[in-house]
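Please, structure for the following, as tokens.
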Amino acid sequence: PSVLAPLQLAVTLSPYTSISSPLFLRTLQDGHAATYWLSLQPRIGDSPIPLLTTWKGQLCARLNVTSEAALSWYLARARRLQQALGATYMVFEGAEGNAFLEQAVPPPAELEGDRYTRVLAEALATLGNATIISAGARSSHLPLFIQMSPLRSDWSHAGLKGVIPSVLHYSLLGYNFFIPDAVGGSLAGDTPEDMELYVRWLQIVTFLPVMAFSTPPWLCCDAWVLNLTHRCIQRHRDFVVPLLIKYSSEWLSSGYPIFRPAWWLSPMDPAAFTIEDEFLIGDEVLVAPVTDKGQRWRDIYLPGEGHLWMDTNTAHVFDGGTILRNYSAGLAEVPVFVK
């Protein structure tokens, strides 16, 4: 119960419907297909034909975001579903791409380029600030979470090593409120079997905006990991969330990202530009997780010459602009420094 209590339900939707679904067939029969779904412009005297595309291997029609009636209808259905299921988060995937250009059809002016993604994001923002989208385009000002790409359940750059570079990429683009892939990775859809990978992944997401789980620790790991998960959730709530709130204000006033690379504090040090496995929260917290299997130590670059950094685990203080060689990072700990 102590771990379950803070967990909240997310429901995933998309702007697609299968052409074999009763919903799509009903709009065809009612003559509303062109209102609700993106359609090809008819020749004179003909009826509009829904533009068919594929989504997750099925032939589908896509929501017509240029129609107020379609958007209102879609948002009302989403709200009803959220209420019926008691879901905290609503995830909307499949907003990216241009269905017209994918089929070499010139899009209408209102849907040129990435406008579909932008218009849908603006509409979804009306559902509340626990709404998640999988793609953003000129929408970083909206109160939405961005779902980061799914990752493999392994130690590669397509898995765990890809988390921190993605965090810095999203944040520097202005998307500070992202949701990393579920602890342990989700691309294969399998239950993560590597307990060490699960723990190291958990330690990184503790310091990110949202901790997401598709596999709870009691399904893949032992009681020790379950207790660690509980401690990480508590640390996220007590230590990380106040930092995010603090640096959100700075982001709004100055445009500075919340999550920053090491070179942010050491812009003249070439070594800082090679660091891809550390990140800063604002200018005051440095997180240096382990991303290699079997390692219980790592080199840590402390940015900002002239600054002092304190290890939150040991209270030892070190100079900025230096590298700590073979620094201890046991399986139960993640090196975190405060300036």
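The longest helix spans residues 223-254. The first strand starts at residue 10 and ends at 13.
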